[in-house]
Amino acid sequence: MPAMPPLGLIDSLERWIVARVRQWQRRRHFRRQAVNLLAYDDRILADLGLDRDEIERASRQSLDEDVRQALSGRRARHPTDSA
Question: Model pTM greater than 0.70?
């Protein structure tokens, strides 16, 4: 009978796989939303506090980075002009 790997190793591997799948799903969802945002003109994006380059750059980030958090952090650093 073959030796079983330690249960802690199996649990860790399972948690890592689940986390990666969730990251991939979040990124896929964001990219779908980004395509919709990029359909707007630059003026509407500016009203939302975004710009086209920023959305495209965010869609190319690695899976480890939370894109929504990066974009909201950028908006906090550069608030939109209120008239």
Answer: no
